[in-house]
Protein: Luciferase-like domain-containing protein
Organism: Planococcus rifietoensis
Amino acid sequence: MTQQTKELAVSILDLVPVRQGFPMGQAFEDMKNLARHAEQFGYKRFWLSEHHNTPTLASSATSILISKVLDATDTIEVGSGGIMLPNHTPLVVAEQFGTLETMHPGRVNLGLGRAPGTDMQTARALRRTTQETAFQFPEDVEELQRYLGPLEAQESVKAYPGVETEVPLFILGSSTSSAVLAAKLGLPYAFAAHFAPQQLESAVAIYRSRFEPSDTLAEPYVIACVNVVGADSAEEAEQLSTSSDQFYLNVVRGTKNPLMPPVDTMDGRWSYAEEAMVKSMARYTFKGNAEQLGEQIGRFAGELPIDELMAVSYIYDQDKRVRSYEILKEAVSNAVRLP
């Protein structure tokens, strides 16, 4: 009997980067333009991150950005990658995403993370408390589930809108602890391999081995977030990827430069140690033309049991960023199949 296969689902994570030489407002226009093209290309979902006190990323008011993308598109699923739950009360998140789901039924995703998405001083400013709320993450997720669930499961405080919307939840993480929680709750699991690749394999193995079916998910579901730079030639992809190199060099140095244009070479722009740290952080970066991307991602999906690939692309020229995602979708559709 011939084994049936399915196409690897492909999605986008947008951090809404601010480009050198452009005002912050342009990042929002870039976001909406990319989302419209993603829908046209057949991407499954378009997620937006949450970051604070970061002048290079315009994604602090995540639920507002999600609303804008939902308004600018018609069918693609839109959500958070993620809402950093320690920064918010579960009731407020339930009300916000219940509102979004009520306005756009069946199109809203709620990815949840336990990190603050910023430095600790800013985290304290967000929470207005010295309490370490990240430790409450498992309880907060379950409280949020209840607010979004059936009326008979509610307590005296209810989320309106929110009750009975059943907005799908996803657990985000970059470590094995998040995998344990996602498995225990029977929720889909998204791993941030685009900047924290070290525990990807072990986290996926733990999640799949410990998964407990839930009312919302019968089998484990894994999303791997990676970096992608696609172009019409390998040489162009290599050059475009220097914007990504400079972005991660920002992280290594703790600087706050906007997304920079590509350069001919990174030689002389980083030290040997900095280059090693950037390449380690961005280890899961796939770049090249359509054929090369298909081969690289095919190997990746063949070695790691994932259900969906979520791509981040730090490409300065927006037409080339759109083209990169078009090439990626074509490459996966033509070359990558899952059993």
User: Anything to note?
Assistant: The domain at 6-338 is CATH 3.20.20.30 (TIM Barrel). The chain is about 45% helix and 15% strand. The CA atoms of residues 4 and 339 lie 6 Å apart. The first helix runs from residue 24 to 41.
